[in-house]
Write a structure and sequence with these properties.
- By secondary structure, the chain is mainly alpha-helical.
- The protein has one domain: Cytochrome P450 (Cytochrome p450, Orthogonal Bundle), CATH 1.10.630.
- The protein contains 9 helices and no strands.
- Helix 2 packs antiparallel against helix 3 and helix 7 packs antiparallel against helix 9.
Length: 179
């Protein structure tokens, strides 16, 4: 996976993405300024703002569009569910890494946690597939992965394709953790 994503984080790629990232940093700064202005109470949860910025940047770079958390100054329902999915992933990974302990732990993982993780995976896969069908004009993670794939290996299909690996990575956890 590291090799697959390395093209999206090359010096060239990062320079091309700088304006996009700068746009979100400016939104973050403006949002914080608005929240701490003299007319407001001056209280702000910086963790939320950093999370919103991270989701907007990664959404744009991974899926080709922002989640608009900074614009709305809130967690969108989709992002809130993804956050729950990440928490579920942490619990589920323990079951995968420690099989003996995992069998016992699986008995105590709430059904909602499993459902959140599956919803997150499904959402990520749908968004990557949607992004692959779109004609996004700006460079993002997938554009670099696809370009490198065509240069090196032709248009590989199936489980060995970069698209499949990217879908799997974005869509973790895998259903195999729930069996």
């Amino acid at each position: 996976m590291r090799r697959l994503l390395s093209h999206a984080f090359s010096e060239k790629a990062l320079r091309e993405q700088e304006s996009l990232i700068r746009k979100y940093v400016e939104k973050l700064i403006q949002g914080l300024k608005n929240r701490i202005a003299p007319s407001s109470k001056g209280e702000v949860n910086v963790v939320d703002w950093y999370n919103w910025a991270a989701f907007d940047v990664i959404g744009d770079l991974a899926f080709g569009y922002s989640f608009d958390c900074l614009t709305d100054a809130r967690y969108t329902p989709r992002v809130a569910r993804s956050m729950q999915g990440f928490k579920a992933l942490a619990q589920i990974q323990v079951t995968a890494r420690f099989p003996l302990f995992g069998k016992v732990l699986k008995l105590f993982v709430p059904k909602r946690v499993v459902k959140d993780a599956i919803e997150h995976r499904t959402f990520a896969i749908e968004r990557v597939e949607q992004r692959m069908r779109s004609e996004v004009q700006k460079p993002d993670f997938l554009s670099y992965i696809l370009a490198h794939n065509k240069e090196k290996e032709g248009n590989v299909k199936g489980r060995n394709s970069p698209q499949y690996k990217y879908l799997h990575y974005c869509g973790q956890p895998d259903e195999c953790y729930f069996s």
